[in-house]
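Query form — protein Class II aldolase/adducin family protein

QUESTION: What is the three-dimensional structure of this chain?
INPUT:
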Amino acid sequence: MAVHALKTSKVADLRSNVSPEEWQARVDLAACYRLIDLYGMSDLIANHISVRVPGEHDAFLINAYGLLYEEITASSLLKIDHEGNILSRPEFAGGLEYGVNRAGFVIHSAIHMAKPEVACVIHTHTWPGMAVSTMECGLLPNTQTSMRFARISYHDFDGVVLDLAAREALVKSLGDNNAMILRNHGLLTTGATIPEAFNAMHRLELSCKTQIAAMSCNTKLIDVPADVVDATYMNYQPKTRRPFGLLDWPALLRKLDRIDPGFRD
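ANSWER: The structure tokens for Class II aldolase/adducin family protein are given below.
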């Protein structure tokens, strides 16, 4: 069933006002929001996905706080800098002026500032992700999919992330990994591209769902030998195989186009 985006919050098409590279980033980011929603990983207007603006090292695109993921389009995204200044805000119908979620700004700016190799950051509050985030054991490497995250990072909960002082600790916790479980909070993935970050989040979400399902069966789980887990983990690392999302993304865009191509507006 088609979802008709932004019926009440229509915005002017920005494609003629930005570079071709920024426009493509906007289209892919809008697609990512739609896909996160389509695969059941959104949380009303909460959470956030960001992408670095090509050619602008201190600017990134993020959702306008007040839109559902299914409403987000390429033109509705906000451009902000690392200090939280809004560099570009679309004009919404009805004079609405959506801003940026404060926690989203803190989390995403922290990673974009510290890691120039990261283009995209995704943060979710799904029930499987939040459930595993409360488990002392963390994410178990007991399936081939979850072994991809055998060395996943963890960040201890110390309240809602509103203070800029939290940025240093977030980056330190993430380290060199591309995925992190925010304890008692949710999930976070990063990528050199939007497809890469989305692929990581989709697989991390699946890993959490599988763990909860297996643990719910009240039977002993099979432990995989550590050397096998490590070898499997290494098979998922960069340069071992093609970049994640490379083959998935065109197919996913075709899927969105069949449902509703409005994300491209």
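ADDITIONAL NOTE: Strands lie at 48-52, 59-62, 78-81, 86-88, 120-124, 153-155, 179-182, 186-191.
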